[in-house]
Amino acid sequence: MPPTNLLQRIGIKYPIFQAPMAGTATPAMAAAVSNAGGLGAIGIGAATASKAREMIQHTKKLTDKPFNVNVFVHEEPQPDAARDAAWIEFLRPEFAKFGGAPPTSLQTVFRSFATSPDVLDVLLAEKPPVVSFHFGLPPADAIKALKAYGAILLATATNLDEARKLEAAGVDAIVAQGIEAGGHRGMFDPTVPDDELGMFTLTRVLVRNVSIPVIAAGGIMDGAGIRAVLDIGAAAAQMGTAFVPCPESDADEGYIKAITGPQAYHTRLVDVVSGRPARSLATRWTEIAAAPHTPAASYPNTYDIGKQLHALATSKGDASYGAYWSGQGAPLVRPMPAAKLVETLVTELEAAKTA
Question: Strands across the sheet with 267-270, in order?
């Protein structure tokens, strides 16, 4: 499929995909982007089936254009009480700073789509036009069921091996996630060494070695960046960090302040917030990651204690424990409504064509 045909098949005008950003992207953001001619997205990876249905229905009320619904397909954590206890004890002094105590155990705060038939039932009932996978692939029967109603399937790859598995499984297009990207690395197996390929290199490697369209993701912040990835063969650009400070975002005050201030110039890959590598703004969590420590608990159980610590610290006026996922392009953010950002990106893209 030629790259341009992907946009036609989805039914969108511009090669601008808003990243799903679970916990930050909202139905209002997704609808604004889709109504402006791009592909808006919501992330339901951390949502219950009922919440996922609510989010999808809300998005439908705001737009009649195509949008993307993203799910997490991670391995379910194996019970490891000793590891969990060690991580809890390691973080006890952080809780003590604010007069609190950590939980006595860690909970699995959300399940994988691979083991959530109720979420699949929601997708089959609501029939979102695009469904995307992060952290791997669901069972073949789930892919078959989604494709049966006409869903266009996207999935994240961080290397060629993952991309080839996606292609073989029948995915329609691959999101090439470079090391620059904010949020969680989409690697299938976090225990395998990460080659940490940059977005441009990864995109070119995939364009030359797979037969399905490639969507570039990581560090793209303006129309010139979109033009650059189209020129190397990408079908579109996926952008997340650029949309974080939009008013439709669900980012909290601390997040917005951090990403629009000096912290934006400093991002780090850490696994101590959630249990899987993710790129964050420099925060107290990145300091913890840089110091000698016991191994973090498994994903997503580590998120349980991370969210509790952030809530406690925020209640005491300290916003430095937030999971402020941001890509390396964070210093280039431009706070404005999502639709205006799409309009601006399109204008810049057109200008880059004639430059």
Answer: 183-184, 278-281, 267-270
Q: Give residue 36's pLDDT band: very low, low, confident or very high (50, 70, 90).
A: very high
Indicate whether 355 pLDDT > 60: yes
Q: What is the CATH number of domain 3-76+111-260+333-354?
A: 3.20.20.70
CB 301 within 8 A of CB 109: yes
Single-letter code of the amino acid located at 336: M
Segments of the chain assigned to CATH 3.20.20.70: 3-76+111-260+333-354
Query: Which of 292, 255, 295, 267 lies closest to 85 in space, CA to CA?
Result: 295
* Rg of the Cα atoms in the chain: 19
Q: What is the pLDDT of residue 354?
A: 76
Q: Which of 142, 139, 132 is nearest to 177 (CA)?
A: 132
Whole-prediction pTM:
0.96
Kind and range of the H or E run holding 243? none
Q: In what order do the strands lie in the sheet with 16-18?
A: 16-18, 236-239, 214-217, 173-177, 152-157, 130-134, 67-72, 40-43
Q: Choose among 239, 262, 257, 255: nearest CA to 180.
A: 239
237-258 pLDDT, tens digit each: 999 999 999 999 999 999 999 9
